[in-house]
Amino acid sequence: MGSSMKKKKEKQKDFQKTKLKVGKTKAKASNFTDTSFKSKAIVMGHQSLSTEAPDVVHQFKHNLSLASSSRSDKQRKDALAYLTSQLSLDDPVNPVGTAAVLTKLVPLISDSATPVRQQLLKLLRTLPADQVKPAVEHSLMFVRAGMTHLSTDISSDALAAMDWLLDVAADELVTCPGGWVRTLTTFCAMMGWALSSSNKGWTSAANVRSTLKPKDAQNRARQMATLAKFLQAGFRDEVVAEATSAQFWDNLYRIPRSGNAFEYLNLFMAQRDEDAEMYPNKEARQQIFHKRFLEPVLKGIDQTKKEGGVTGRAAIGLEQVLAKGMKDFEVSTALDTQDLMDLW
């Protein structure tokens, strides 16, 4: 009987209303922390406050570091925007020099963020051309890498950087080590023009394509226009200065000052690397172009002309540039020194 009454009372507890006493606060939890204290000062470690703002030189270097190393896309873009504003002034602020700026920022050509790449292109246009020329070789490596990127957007922005280089330093671009052959190889790889007659490999497969989509057609037309601009720079007629009588006799009898005056003959050196060589004159560039690139470029032009539209017109323009540039070319019958070494 006692146990049944106990169970009945326990059930009635669920329906009983708790009586609250007026003026009495609720009991505090066991893990309660009192935050009602007040402090007159807040001390933060590793922080220095100054009444003077950092100077322009410090801000420029700081933003240059942020632009090249920050993990935040927005921070990189804002840093590039600041640098662009400083370089665009009537009296440009550049305490580190153009070469250092290019060394730090040119790798951003392949940045994954489109706003960063777009801001970088704006910054490049503000750099003085005469100071860009000595750094062409270093910049060209990253431009070529961006042109063959799998992302179409990155490849397109790298092509814009190539246009910028051709505008400010065309002669230095085509004459620097690797500037002629490696850049032509990059153009052919970007457009899928095979450089060998083999039927194997991705380059040959890229040639078999149907009609391009409108966006792809615009990109292809732009690529061919930049290639035409590059060939114009390489096949440009050179102005030869008249040699004086003193220079003539010096060339005949004066001892050469260079350490290896006959290095260009490559008689006792390692095997010549055509890709990394310098081609300082129009004739040398025509010779290597005829040897390695003329046939695949002509095939690519013929195929593109069949597509018609904007790409067909770009192909016709490229064909005209090529015909004009190679018009005065004569195939050399001399045996190359590399061929002599192969015979040995």
TrEMBL record:
Pfam families per record: Ipi1_N
Transcription is among the record's keywords: no
Extent of Basic residues compositional bias: 1-10
Compartments where located: Nucleus
Domain Pre-rRNA-processing protein Ipi1 N-terminal: 131-231
InterPro entries: ARM-type_fold, Ipi1_N
GO biological process, one term: rRNA processing
Region annotated Disordered, chain positions: 1-23
Record's GO cellular component terms: nucleus; rixosome complex
Keyword Nucleus: yes
SUPFAM superfamilies: ARM repeat (SSF48371)
Keywords for this protein: Nucleus, Ribosome biogenesis, rRNA processing
Function noted in UniProt: Component of the RIX1 complex required for processing of ITS2 sequences from 35S pre-rRNA.
Subunit (UniProt): Component of the RIX1 complex.
Similarity section: Belongs to the IPI1/TEX10 family.
Protein name: Pre-rRNA-processing protein
